[in-house]
Amino acid sequence: MNDSILYWALLPEILAGAGGIFIVLLTPFLRGSRDRGSRLIPGLTLLILLGAMVALFTVARDLPQSPMKELSFSGDTFSLSFRFLLLLICAVISLAARPFLEREEIFRGEFYALLLFIYLGMALLSGSQDLLSTFVGLEVLSIGCYILLGLKRSDLRANEAAWKYFLLGSISSAFFLYGIAMVFGATGSTRYADLFALMGSHSDKQATLLLNCGLALIFVGLAFKLALVPFHSWAADVYEGAPSLIVAFFSTAPKVAAMAALMRFFNFHFPRMHYSAGHFAGWIAVASMTLGNLAAISQQNVKRMLAYSSIAHAGYMILAIFIDNETADTTLFIYLLAYSMMNLGAFLILSLLSGKGDLCVSLHDLSGLAERRPGLAALLSLFLLSLTGIPLTGGFTAKFYLFGSALKNGLVGLVIIAVLNSAVSAYYYLRPVVHMYMKPLPESPSPAEVPPVPIGFALAIGTAALAILWLGILPSFWLEFAEKVNLALK
Amino acid sequence: MEFILFLIFSFICIAAVLNMLFQKESVYCALSLVVCMASLACLYLLLQAPFAAAIQIIIYAGAVMVLFLFVIMLLDPRSDSGSGRPRRMLFLATVLGISLFAALAVFLSRSQSFLNSGHPKPAAGQIGAVEVGLALFHRYLIPLEAVGILILMATLGAVLLAKKKI
Amino acid sequence: MTVPIIYYLGLSALLFALGSVGLLLKRNLLVQFMCVELMLNAANLAFVAFSQGRADGSVIVFIVMAVAAAEAGVGLALVVVLFRNRNSLDSEDFRLMKG
Amino acid sequence: MKIPYLLALLTYLPAAGGILVLLVNGAQEKVIRWFAFLLSAAVFVLSLLLVASYPLPAAGYVLEETLGWLQVPQLGITHHMGVDGVNLFLVLLTTFLTPIAILSSFTAVHRKVQSYYALLLFLETGMLGVFLALDLVLFYLFWEVTLVPMYLLIGIWGGERRIYAAVKFILYTMVGSLLMLVAILYLHLQTGTGSFDLLRIAGQLSSGAAALTRTQELWLFLAFFVAFAIKVPLFPFHTWLPDAHVEAPTAGSILLAGVLLKMGAYGILRFCLPLFPHASTAFAPLISLLAVIGIIYGALVALVQTDMKKLIAYSSVSHLGFVVLGIFSFSLQGLQGASYQMLNHGISTGALFLIVGILYERRHTRRIEEFGGIARSMPHYAAATLIIALSSIGLPGLNGFVGEFLILLGSFAKNSALTAVAVTGVFFSAAYLLWMYQRVYFGPLTRDENRQLADLDRREWACLIPLILMAVWMGIYSQPFLQRMEGASRNILHPIQSNQLVAREASPDFRPAASPKPAAGESRIAPEPRSFPHE
Amino acid sequence: MSDWFWIIPFFPLAGFLVLGLVGRRLPVAAVSLTACGSVALSFVTALFSWQALLRQPDEARFFSQRLFTWIAAGNFQADFSFGLNPLSMVMVLVITGVGLLIHIYSTGYMHGDPGYPRFFAYLNLFLFAMLTLVMAENYLLLFVGWEGVGLCSYLLIGFWFEKPAAASAGKKAFLVNRIGDAAFLLGLFLLFYQFGTLDFRGIEHALHSEPLHFPVETGQIGTLTLTALLLFVGAVGKSAQIPLYVWLPDAMEGPTPVSALIHAATMVTAGIYLVVRSSALFTRAPLAMETVAVVGMLTAVFAATIGLVQRDIKRVLAYSTVSQLGYMFAAVGVGAFVGGMFHLVTHAFFKALLFLGAGSVIHGLHGEQDLFHMGNLRKQMPRTFAVMLVGMLAIAGVPGLSGFFSKDEILWKLFSSGHTWLWIAGLAGAAMTAFYTARLILLAFGSRPHGEEAHGHAAHESPAVMVVPLVILALLSIAAGWIGLPAWLGTNHLEEFLSPALAVHAEGAHGAGSHSTEIAAAALSSGIALLGIGAALLFYFYRRLDPDALAGRFPFLYRLLRNKYWVDELYRGVFVQPCLWISRRVFWLYWDQEVIDGLVNGTGRILAGAGNILRRLQSGSVRDYAAWLCAGALTVLLYLLIV
Fold this sequence. Notes:
The structure holds five protein chains of five kinds. By secondary structure, chain A is mainly α. Helix content of chain A is 78%, strand content 0%. Chain A has helices at 2-9, 11-30, 34-61, 77-103, 109-127, 131-150, 156-187, 192-201, 205-226, 233-241, 244-266, 277-297, 302-318, 327-353, 363-366, 369-372, 374-388, 394-408, 412-438, 455-473, 475-489. In chain A, helix 4 (77-103) packs antiparallel against helix 11 (244-266) and helix 11 (244-266) packs parallel to helix 13. Among the domains of chain B are: 1-76, NADH-ubiquinone/plastoquinone oxidoreductase chain 6, subunit NuoJ (Four Helix Bundle (Hemerythrin (Met), subunit A)), CATH 1.20.120.1200; 128-166. Chain B contains seven helices and no strands. Chain B is globular. Chains in contact: A-B, A-C, A-D, A-E, B-C, B-E, C-E, D-E.
C-alpha cells in the first residue's frame, strides 16, 4: 500500500528522470539533422518540466497528510513549494538555453538531460527525510554542475572554474559525509525522524554533543553550496569563468535546494535546538552580508560584482532560519522566489550582452547602453533596483517580509546591520545604471553590436521581470500561494 | 589477538598515507593509496563487515585506483617539482590538519562512554550480501535509484568532457 | 576482546585530517583528488565502525563508494580536459581568475 | 460633487500619463510636451476640486479613502489615503508647480524628451502619494518611489558633476529612509495592531493601549527624525542639497526645491510629533538650535557663493531652518507659520530656480560675475526677479513675511534668545539676495553678450505670472490658507500639549478688556479675543 | 467725508499700478498728470478728513476703518485697518503736501530721463507705503509700511542703476534699515507677549487702565523698557541716528527730488513718528527716554561737525538732516513730544526747500555738485538764490522764521527739563548748523575769490515748474513757525491739536522758570545763530580768515572730519570683511567641503578600501580556497566546543 503513496509523491521526479533518460537516448539519432533536432529537444524538456509542475499540484492535493515515516522521501508541502520554484527556474533556463548554447557552439541534447537530472537531485535534496538520500541528492546536484561547468571545453577560464568548483565541492561533500557519519553514530539511524526525536529529548548529554558536531559539519557542507562567508571563496572565480547562462542557473537553483535542506535541519518542525545554531549562524550571516557588499563595491567586472552580491543575499537568507514561528517557510519561499528571479534575469541579460565568446562584461562595456538597447537597459535596471530593494519591486517585498518576521523574533541588531548593508549595496547596484544611462556612448572602441534578442531569451527574461513586478506590486497573490501551500501542511 | 591485527593494519594504513603525502612521483602516491585501501578493507573484516571489505577491494582498490593509474600513465606528467611556496603552505597545512584532528578527537573522546555502551550488541553474525541487499531495496530504495541516475550522469559527463571530438 | 570502536573512530578522524592536509600540500591535481578520495574513505570507516553489525553501515558504504566512483569518473575527465589544454597538472598554473 | 476615489485618481493619473508618454513613439516631441503639460494642468484642476470640497471648519482628517484591491492583508498594509489641513496645500503646491516645471523645460530639454517627461510625471505621482498616504508602508513606498525619478533626472539631464551629485543624493536619502523602514517595522510590531495604518497606531499609542517605553520612543523618534532631517535638509545633513540643485535640470530643481524638501518637514509634522510626543519635546531644544544654526549658516554661506543656483540652494537650507524652528516651537503660531512657510518657500524658491533657468538657457552659465546690467537689456525680467527676490527675503506684503513672522512669533515664547539670533537670519537673507541682484542686474553693461539678450517671451511669462500672483495673494490675504490649516495644527499639537509637556498655547496671562467705542465711523473693536473660526 | 478717509493711501497705489503696468506706453504729459493728480487727490481728501477730525469732540478724536483680517493664527490677530488720530493727521498732511510739491518739481527736474514713468511709479509707491505707515492701526501694518518705504528708498536711490555707486548705495540703505527692522520685529514679539495684541489703541488702553500691572520702570530695565529700546533701535535704523546713519549720506546718489522727499521730509521722520505714537509705552520707561535723548543729541552734534567740511552740496544737506533728526529725538527723549513733532513739520518744509534749491542749482550747472566748483550764481539764478536764502535763515534759527520757533522750543524744553548738558550741546549744534548752511549759500551763490575761474556763466535759471514749488515751500518755511508759538508769544495751536493723542510725560513738568527765563533762552539761541552766520561770512564773504590756513593748523582734526571719522571704513573692517571671510573660508570651504563632505566621501573611500583588501584575498589558487574552507569548518567546530 505505501508504495503507491511513494510513487504518487515522487511523480514529478519520476517524470523528470524518465524524460532525461529518454532525451539521452534520443540525441544520437538526431545528430544528423542539426536544425530539427535543435528544436525538438528543448521543446520536449519544457513539456516535461511543465508536466512535472502540473503533477506536483495534482499530487499535492490528494496526498495523505502523514509524511511517510519509514520511507526516505516526503512529499510534504514544505518541499512542494520549493520544488515548484526549482521547476520554474529549470523551465526558464531551458527556454533561454538553445540560442545561448548555439552561439557558444556547445549545443548538445545532453545539456537538457543533465538539466532534468539536476532537477531530480535538487528535488531529492529539498524533500528527503533521510540523511543518505540528502547526500545522494547533493551529489547528483554537484556532479551535474561539474559537468555543466566543464561543457565549454575550449575556454580555459571555464575549465579552471569547473576544476575549482569540483575540488572544493568534493571537499565539502566529504565534510558533509563525515557529518552524516557523526549523526549516524549518535542516533543509530539516518532517518530525520530519529534525528529530531533525539534532538528534542535532550536525553544523553554526550549523544547530543556528537549530534551537534555532525550537524555542524552538515551545515558546512550546505553552507558551501550557499557560498556563505567562510566557504564563499569559489563563488567569484566560478561566476566569472563559467558560461553566463550556466551561471544564471548555477547561482539560483542550487541555493534554493541547499536552503530548503538547511531549513529542515535547523528550523523546521522541532523545538529550538538547544545548541547554539543561532550564534554561529548569526555571525556567519553578518560576515557574509558585510563581506559580500564590501567586496562588490570595488568590482569592475559585473559578473564578479553579482557573485559578491549573491554572497550578500545568502547572508540575508540565512536570517530565515532564526524565525521559529509559522511564517518562516512563507518568508523563505518569497525571498527565494524574488532572489532567484532577480539573479536569473540579471545573468540572462548579461549573457546576452557578453556576445560571442561570452567575454566578461565590465562596467565600461555597459556605458551608453540606454541609447543602443533601451529595452535591455530598462530591464537590467529593474533587476538591479529589485536587488537593492527599491519599493514596487519583488526585492523590496522579499526584504520587507523577511526583515519584518526577523524583527518579530527580536533580531533587531541583525536587521539593522542588514538594512545598513542594503544601503551600501545601493551604491554598487546603481553603478551599472549610472553607466548605462548617464555615461555617453563610447566612440572610440565601438562596442560589439548586440544581436537581436532571440525569442527564447525574450521569453525567459520576460517571465523573470513579470515575476518581479508581480511580486512587487501585488504581493498578496504570492503570499496567499505560499501560505495556502504551507497551511495545508499544518 | 584482534587488537594486534587492528594495530598492524592501522599502522600500515597510516604509513601508506604518510608516504603518499611526501612522495614526489604521482605514480607512487597512487600505489601507496592502493595499499591504504587494502588495509582499510582488512579493518572492515575486523569489524565483521565482509561485504563492505569485498566491495572496498573490488570497487575502490580495483576500479577507481586502476582508473587513476591509467590516467597517470596516459598523461605521464613531470614529477611534482616540490610545493611552490614551501614554508607558508606547509606550516598552514600542518596547523590546520592537527587542529582538525584534535577537534574531532575531542568530540569523540567526550562522547566515548556513550559510544562504548550505547550500542546494542550485534545480534546476527557477519553482515553478508543478503542483509545488505534486503536493506538496500527496502529502506534505501530512493537513494539507490538516485545513485543509478548519478552513475548514468557521470558516464555521460565523462564522455562529454573528455572525448576528443564529438 | 573486541577493539572498542573509539579506536576505529580515532583512526578515521586521523585519516580525515591527513586527507585535508594532503590536499593543501600537494600541487599535483591528481594527488589532491586522491586525498579527497581518502577523506571519503575515512568517512566510510566511521560508518562501518558505527554500524557495528547492522546492515545500515555496509549499505551506506556501498552507496558512498558508488558516489565516489562517479565523482572520480567526472573528476578524471576534467583533469584530462585541463591537461589537454594546459598540459600541466600543477594547480599553481591555474590562477587565471583572481581579485 | 463628490468624485469617488478622488485621492487615488489624483495620485495615479500622472503615472498613467507617464506610461502613456512612454508608449507613444519618441519622435513627436511636440505632442509629448503638450500632452504632459495638459495632463499636469488637468491634475491641478482636479486638486482644486479637492480644495472646493474641503469643508470648513476642518478638525480631523477630512477626505479619507481606502482602496480595496491594492491591499496586502497578510502583512497589514492598507492603501489608506487622507487629506487634512497639513497636506491639503502641499498637494496643491505639487500640482501647481509641476505644470510650471514642465512648461519651463519646453526649450531646455532636447535629449531623450520622451523619458524626461515620463519621469517628471512619475515623480509627481510619487510626491502626491507621499503627501496623501496615511499608511506607514504606503508612505515609505512613495517616499522611495520619488527617489528614482529624481535620481535619473539629475543623473541624465544634469550638469557636469551630475553623476556625483545624483549618487550622493540617492545614498544620503536612502540611508536615512532605510533606518526609517526598520523603525516602521518595529513600531508595527510594538503596537501589535497588526496593521501599518497611521490612525490606528496613533490611536493605540495615545490611548495607552500599547505604550512605548521611553528608550524605545527615543530610538524610534531618532530613526524617523534622521530620515526626515536629511530630506529637509537640517544643518548637519545638508551638503547634498547644493550639489543636487546645481547639477539638476531647471524643472528638476524646481520640483526638488519646491516639493521634495517639504516631504521631510511634512514627515516630521505627520509622524514624529503625533507618534512620539515625549521624545519630540525632549529633543526640541537641540533641534531648534540646529535649525537656527542652519538659518545663519545657510544665509552666510549663500553670501559668498559665485554660482547662482548654489546660492539659492543654500538659501533653501536657511528658509527650511525657519520651518523646522517653527515646528519645534510647539506653539500654534509656530506650526501655522511652518506649514505656511513651506508653501511660500515652494513658490518663491521654485520661481527663483525658474529665473536662473531662464538666464541659463540664454547664456549657458550661472556664474554671477558673467553678468552685470541685465536690467538694461531685460527690464521686465529684472522686475519679475525683484518681486520674487523680495518675496524670498520676506518683505511684508509678500508671502515670505507672513510665514517667517508667525514662526518667529511662535518660537519667541518658547526661547526668546534663540529667536533673537534667528531674526538676524532675516537680515542676512536680504543681504545675499540683494547683493546677488545688484551684481547681476544693476551696474554697467560690461559684457557685450549681455547686451542683446532677449527679454521674456510668452511661455516664460506664463510660467512666472502664476507664481508672482500667488506670492502677492498669499502675502496680502492669507486667511483662506491659515483657516484650513488651523484644525490640523491643533490636532498635531494636542498630544504634546495634552500631557502638559508644554505650557498651554503661548498666550500671555493678561487679557486686555474691550477698548472704548469709537465715536464715529464704522470700526472694529480690535483686541477682544476671537472665537474660532469666524467668517 | 469722514468715513472715506481710508481712501487716502489708495490714490498713490492706483497711480503706481497705472504707471507701473502701462507707464511706458503713456505720453510724458499723461504720466506726470497721473502721478501728480493722484497725490493731489489724496492731499485734498486729507484736508477734508482734517476738517472732519477737528469737528470731533476732544476725547474721541480718531477714525478707524477695518478692511479685512490679514493674519490670524491662534490668539494672534492682525487686521488690515487704517485709522486717523491727530498725530497721524499731521503726518498725513505733511506727507501729502510736501509730496505734491516735490512731484510737481520732479516733472521739471526729471524731464528727458528715459526712466521717467518708472521714477514716478516708484514715487507713488513710496507715498502709498508712507501713508500706510502713518495711517496703520496696528504695529504690524505699520511694519508693512515701514519696510515698504525701505524698499522704495532702495529702488529710488538705485534709480540710475548703471552707476555702480548708486546701486551699492541703494543696497546699503536697505540692509542698514533691515538691521533696524530686525530689532523692530523683536520689539513686536515682546509687545504681543505683554499685551496680547499689536493694536495701538489696545495697547494704550491696557497701559492706562491697568497701571499696577504696568508700573513705570524707573531705574531698572523691565520688559517695557526693553520693548521701548528695541522699537527705538528700529527707529534709529530708519531715521539714521548714531550707529546706523551711514546709509543717509550715500543715499545722495539718488535723484535730488528723492533726497528731498524721502531723505529729508518723510521717510527719515518715520522713526520719530513711531516713538511719538508709542509715547504711552515710552513714558513708562524713563531709561529708554534717557537713551533716546542722549543718542539724539549725540547724533546732532556729531553730524553737525562733519557737515562743516563737506565739499558736495547734497552731502552737507544730508548731514544737516541727520543733525536736525538728532534734535527731534532729543526733544522726544525729554518728553517734549509736541516740540519734536513741531520741529519735524518745520524741518520738512525748509529742508525740502534747501534740497530742491540745491537740485535746481545742480540742474542749472548740468550735474555739478561740488561747492568749490560753483560761485556767483546770484546773478544767473536770482530766484533760486532768494528761496535758498530764506531756507538758510530758517534752518539757522534766525528769529521770526519757522526754524527759530521749533528749534527754540526744543532748546527750551531741554533747558527746562533739567538736561543742561544736552542744552549746551544743542546750542553748539545750532551754531554749527548756522555756520555750515551759511557757508553753503556763500560758496554756491557768493562771488568766487579772485584766483579760481567760475562756471557761473553757463548756469541758467530753472523753469517755472521747479521754481513755483520752491516759492511755496519758502512761504511755508516762514509761516510754519506761527502754528506753534511759544507761551510768551501766543497760543500753541499744534499743542492743542496733538495733546489728546499723546501721553503726558510725568517727569517733564512744565517750564521750571517763568516766561522771562524762556525769553532769555530764546534770545540766547538766536544770538548763537547770528554768531554762526557771522563766522561763515567772515570765512567766505569778507575772507578775513582763510579756511585752508585754519585747516592747516589743525591737520588731524580737519582730516578726521573730512573722512567722516572713518566710520564707513570702521564698519567695513569690523563687520563686513570678517563676516565675508568667515563665511567663505570657515563655513563654506572648510566646514562644508572638508568636514561634512570629507566625512561622507571618507566613509565611501574606507568602504571601497575594505572592499579592495577583501578582493585581494581571492588569490586564485585552489589550495588557498581549500585552506579557507577547512579553516571555516574548523572555526565552526571550535565554536561549538567553546560556546
